[in-house]
Predict the structure.
Amino acid sequence: MSRNDLRLAITNRQVLSIALPISMALLIPQINFITNNIFLGALGERELGTAGITGVYYLVVAVVGNGLNNGLQSIISRRAGENNFAAIGRTYIQGIRMSLFFAAAGILLTYAITPLLMQRFLHSPQVEQEAIHFLYIRVWGLPFLYIYQMSNAFLVGTNHSRYLVYGTLCETIVNVFLDYSMIGGHFGFPALGFDGAAYASIAAELTGMCVVLSCISIKGLHRRFFLFRQIRFDRKLSGVIFKQSVPLVLQYSMSLASWLYFYTLIEHHGTLGLAVSNTLRNIIGLFGVICWAFASTTNTMVSNVIGQGMPSKVEPLIRRIMLLSLLFCLCIALLLNLFPRVFLGVYGQDETFIRTAIPLLRMVTGSMSLMAIATVWLNAVTGTGKTRINLAIEIVALVAYIIYVYQVLEHYQLSLVWAWGSEYLYWLILGSLAFWYMRTGKWRYT
């Protein structure tokens, strides 16, 4: 394929060439989360549980960038299918502008509402104060994270996803080093304890952003896509990005907000349940990157194929990606079930913790096959540009999810195994509705 031809082929090799670098790029931030929790777990069970609350909260605000990323990626991929280089550059620059606006709003909102949220939902005053102080520091990483995510959308949409690995690898090295140095006080750094993880994560996000921007510059992509010739504000294009991305921002924010609600209900059942659930979230995040990598690939390739004027090829493409995603996730689920103590043991907790976690781990890994299928079909909807449909599907699934977890944890006071059964309900509804919409063919019409 010519260097000036950005159109993608519908082959397994093409799918994997996009998905595998994305999976590495997604894997390394999850390693960062797990690294934070391993070091914080050494401080005690309460700190590990608090890390679950703060981690999910930060994901709620960080996922705004993920929504912008997916919306921007869909638009860029469509232009790539058309081989419209100048339009890709304009879209990327306007996406950067918009992401900085959202980052500022996220910082202001965190300072305004965090104390109210934590006081309302948490029962332990010590956990509450620890969480608030941590988030006041942690949220300053948002501008770096958002610019990094917009750059990722640019690289994936233009079929340069292999460069993502450099940024995420450097980010991980910095995060692990500073976690060890700043949480425990090594190499001349002060022992900051819980807050040390916040400072380490900010430094890591700054590093990742700088490395990815350097790759864009060193590889000459700024010249190829005319990035610095199109820095003025473009109201019309910004409106298109906003319209495409905001439903995704709302979708992802609502999804993670419901997860935060889930964690606050678990906190009512004690610190052990909270610590175990936080561990499961890390394991899901670590191994779920395969699902999300194939999902992101679906978004890019569906949009690119539509841009090529081949809508009839969309459904065969989705099925191809879905089967690859399912195969990888089944292998991972098998690995987790064969060696559960290996994965749970890295958190340094006692035998009671591990015995409590193993049944939950088996429950969660069972839902991974549904996740592998549902995320592909949902991101196919994103690739068509019908992001309002994404939001509608998410709302239906979340209403059912919230009703379920409230009834299980608050009304009937059932075990955590039943609570984590909510994953099956959520992914089944999400995947079924996305599949139904794509089968109707309504996405073909504007």
